[in-house]
Amino acid sequence: MSYLPRGTVYGTLLNFRSEFEALRPQMDQAPYKAPPRAPVLYVKTANTFSPHGAAIALPPGVADVEIGATLGMVMKNATEVAGCVLMNDLSLPHASFFRPPVKFKCLDGFLGVGLQVRPADPATLRIEVRINGELRQTVRFDALVRAPANLLADVAGFMTLGEGDVLLLGCDAPRPRARAGDRVELHSPALGTLSNTLVAQAS
Predict the structure, then answer these.
(1) For the chain, how far is it from start to end, CA to CA, in angstroms?
(2) Origin, by domain of life (predicted)?
(3) How far is CA 95 from CA 17, 79, 91, 92, 171, in A?
């Protein structure tokens, strides 16, 4: 039986150095005028969950979506991680990370979820992203703004994660894009394969 999260899934913004540096000039502008000091989180709501093999429908008028290959740390309790799972944090393309991204990230089906949760050290893992069989991105987790243990500790400073909650490590930039008809495959030697096909939503 395919895994689906039992708790809340929290995404993390600006945790890849490439993404952080690309947006660094905007961080000094109003209203913030400084880089964030704490992790910037958002929620992937339950309506976004798409198991391995499921078709993901793109709403009318959406030409393409950003592919967000990432790892989810599944919590055993407030401080311990049960294991990691592949996740595809889909998003509508957008220019600003300084507003709540719910309308870009929480459309129906916009979180591909890997088959299994497995014990793993995130810093040693990589994800290969293929679209229609073509390698488009390789994501590594050994040089994050906040390493997994540090991210957990910093999040624990302002909220408590519960059993079954999932904390995503963030998405590298630039992100590949895909459109209706494309088959998107994420593969990690340690965690297996997550595959979904994008389709046009029926009118």
Answers:
(1) 31
(2) Bacteria
(3) 17, 34, 12, 10, 15
CATH T-level fold of 9-200: Fumarylacetoacetate hydrolase; domain 2 (3.90.850)
In b/e form, how buried is each residue of 175-194, taking b as 16+ CB within 10 angstroms?
bbebebebebbbbbebbeeb
Q: Quote helix, strand, coil % in the chain, to nearest 5.
A: 15, 35, 50
Pairwise CA distance, residues 61 & 42, whole Å: 25
Eight-state DSSP code of residue 101: -
| 44 closest CA partner among 74, 96, 5 | 5
Structure confidence by residue, pLDDT tens digits, 150-203: 999 999 999 999 999 999 999 998 999 999 999 999 999 999 999 999 999 876
Q: Domain limits of the chain?
A: 9-200
* 88 contacts 129 by C-beta, under 8 angstroms: no
Please give the model's pTM, rounded to 2 decimal places: 0.93
